[in-house]
User: Fold Glutamine-dependent NAD(+) synthetase from Saccharopolyspora endophytica.
Amino acid sequence: MPQLRIALAQVNTCVGDVAGNSSMVRDWTRRAVQDGAHVVAFPEMTLSGYPIEDLTLRKSFAAANRDALEQLARDLQADGCGDALVVVGHLGRDDEGPRNSASLLYSGEVVATYNKHHLPNYGVFDEARNFAPGFELPIVKLHGVDVGVVICEDIWQNGGPVAALGKVGVDMVVCINASPYERSKDDQRVPLVSARAVEAGAPLAYVNLVGAQDELVFDGDSLIADAEGRIIARAPQFAEHLLVADLELTSGGHTSTTVPAEPGPIRMPAFDVKRTVLQPEPVPSFEPRPLPVPAEPLSDEDEVWGALVTGLRDYVHKNGARSVTFGFSGGIDSAVCAALAVDALGPDSVHGVSMPSVYSSEHSRSDAADLARRLGCHYETHAVADMVDIYVRQLELTGLAEENVQARVRGVLLMALSNQHGHLVLATGNKTELAVGYSTIYGDAVGAFAPIKDVPKTLVWKLARWRNDAAEKRGEVPPIPENSISKVPSAELRPDQTDQDSLPEYDVLDVVLDGYVEGDKGYQDLVSDGFDAELVERVLRMVDRAEFKRRQYPPGTKITFKAFGRDRRLPITNRWREIAP
Amino acid sequence: MPQLRIALAQVNTCVGDVAGNSSMVRDWTRRAVQDGAHVVAFPEMTLSGYPIEDLTLRKSFAAANRDALEQLARDLQADGCGDALVVVGHLGRDDEGPRNSASLLYSGEVVATYNKHHLPNYGVFDEARNFAPGFELPIVKLHGVDVGVVICEDIWQNGGPVAALGKVGVDMVVCINASPYERSKDDQRVPLVSARAVEAGAPLAYVNLVGAQDELVFDGDSLIADAEGRIIARAPQFAEHLLVADLELTSGGHTSTTVPAEPGPIRMPAFDVKRTVLQPEPVPSFEPRPLPVPAEPLSDEDEVWGALVTGLRDYVHKNGARSVTFGFSGGIDSAVCAALAVDALGPDSVHGVSMPSVYSSEHSRSDAADLARRLGCHYETHAVADMVDIYVRQLELTGLAEENVQARVRGVLLMALSNQHGHLVLATGNKTELAVGYSTIYGDAVGAFAPIKDVPKTLVWKLARWRNDAAEKRGEVPPIPENSISKVPSAELRPDQTDQDSLPEYDVLDVVLDGYVEGDKGYQDLVSDGFDAELVERVLRMVDRAEFKRRQYPPGTKITFKAFGRDRRLPITNRWREIAP
Assistant:
């Protein structure tokens, strides 16, 4: 039985940083080879970063990818890693257009390239727009083992290249991925990896990207399934990791070189199988090491917190910023953002600003100061009363215009501090506010990044309690003041205002929003689910009206399928209303 | 020879307004039938509006389209229009998913439905994301004439349904469209319509949408080509119009019901042809009316001005606003926006605001006032010095932070007027500024719509002169003060500032930007084109850095292929630079 030691490099790339990403491949390959690996696999689009969207169309970027790939093959050889088979994702380009490619590097050369076949074009994905699909399946023989390669969506669609590899026969499948995190996504991903291994009749090694890129977070969670579909190795979430495992493989038995066309309304062409022999002889038999202890999946809150911390940290750092500033209002949203920011960047990189107006309560100021003390971050106070007053008097503002001016004056103030001191401004709004439009554009929506943009209000509270409990368990000071969690939420833009003057109770509101936004349920569906018809009508009206505001909101870490972001595209001008106006 | 009178209803629909769009179909069909039309064709996605993006995924919206379609067939019958064949676009939905459909209504029923086959997925289009492609070709016999229907992109791709119709034989093709305007697009569209008529071996009637939807403008320009490809009728641009023409047709000669598969790497399945006989007998022979005089295509400036006026008017009106407000700075950009706004909405709907700071020149104020006088619009002055002063003193602002505060104080001021009086705020920046990032987010970028977002600075000047000349030719007061056109451009955020302190000369800058943005040329290409290497480097650096600012900019009318908007998707976090940093 041939043996191989495989290393899955679960790394954190950056879009566009071809040189940095290449150098990362060299570093991790050296580590893997020093550890005796015969195969080293990196995630989808490692050299380019992922997702690169319309950067695919820029020929000079494709040329830079090609040059870097060829240089990388030579550099790996020079590094003494030429005997390892290195699988690396990159942007390809040929006569058919841009490609989402996985190249196999060996002995200083690019020995084979696979172009992703199934191009996802839903949710956050635009791949049918950005890439031409591939129809060739390279299989390389390394140390007597036939290795096939597929990319991410290829395993999420039935009847694709994995089935084809299974039919022609393959001894191991490497699947490279940039599979974005969603809450509980591993409930789908793990059984899928198992099922595809069974379909291929061979072990499947699944390496995923880790880290964040704009709104997307990649959780890692790389896996190896054996030919029977058992998960035999698993990497942690939200951390770079080299997952090394020794595999004993079955080899041989291939009879055909072409797979018959798939059935279905659109007939798929046959895949062309291209075989390359790199090394026909198995490696000398060795004593396999025990498999690494599989990483335990995280709890729901732990996982969400990890996603939010990763999203914020990478957005700030990958954009070249070192510190953030935002309003500390004393409320729960800014408190959770502050705890996230300190976990992501450290207390010295967080600059809280209290901006009391004439309507701010005493407890707001004291809770904000308490938060800063608990976190050990920077904290200053700038009253906005004088600025607000000039606008209100000079323009004779009343009602909503007066309320909004307070929020906007704060936005200008934070941007001035950002321009003067170089901090990146965070917007602290949550998903519930964003859904119903309970925010001021150019006011509290000001910022380069919105850490809890995809977190419903009820989950904000849950995360706050979870984070405080976690601190207590570790014997640390709970970061979030109890009063910020327990008090009645208020925007404090007029006397004695509370959120529930304008909104239904959050526990009901969040459930209706989840049905309407995530579940794509209509008015009738929700009423049939047992919600009060008047409440449903009220909520749906608010959501439908708020589309323009959502456009103006900064990006934020996505943790659900239908986050309000680039994966949800709606016209701005639109008279369709679930409820007739 | 059978005869038919065909009417192309070039109408202005609104996304989501199913009831309004249906009622428009009834009104225009009545007009056409009163004029003796046997066939009446409406644009692509008439009932739903276009583009509806992810609204396709909402099942309740698809159900509303289906109900409205069936009701419309009954209503047309009740209106006495049941003998006319009415071709209308709408959102369809079946087991395969959402469809971009054209239904044929006759005698109170939906007699056939075609689902668009070629789904564009580039530029502004997301149709492969939003629709399942169709593989059935209905052909209905009306008055002895076999009529086939195709939709928009179906004629822009080779080897599609038009070729299939040509092979099975058809006597007339109706092509319904929502084909967005771009400068000089008719240079491509007119020869294409001719070529497809020849390919079908039959006259092709091309009806296009007119009016604007968010960033897209549809220019109309509906056409009829005879079987030899000659354009025999043409509707005007940027106006609703009923184009009626009498056609003498050749009938018969069909031999097969299925077209062979297309060649190529992805084999297309055969189209299934479905024939329906509505009326086998030709209409009694009648004396054809002379063809209407074809509308003359507009000059370049006239066409662009028409697109910008249409874009602004429909954005404001379709979003339910009645008036606009924005800063009158005395400069060329706000002057052109003001002239556009008055042409689009009338002088009583335009509220100019002068917001002088301590750095504003005397000529700025007088030019702004002169502009308002020429246009006859509302005009008021609000000095911003006091507001700016508080920020600068309280936060000890200097340099760029001080400059930006002026722009942001103006943004807050305009939004306060908007909240207090209900005007929609316009952002007056041009494409050149947006490309290089020469603007202040939350400052001059504030607004719900940016009328000249896709107009380069040099074209802004050209349009100003053209608009003034047009006024003089009509014996009217030229709307734009000569001084606003001829003076040195300045943001006036510090003493004696001019745009060219920060930017290359606009005439060179715009050419380099056109090559980089529209032409997708790289650094080397531009240097090979003869541009100064240092200049190219400087410009490309600015464009690459400004991506985040562009994200925060409001939507604006698109007049080029690569407008900065939804059709150009790039990551925010991105270290790829055409020029190494």
Summary: DSSP finds 18 helices and 19 strands in chain A. The first helix of chain A runs from residue 18 to 34.
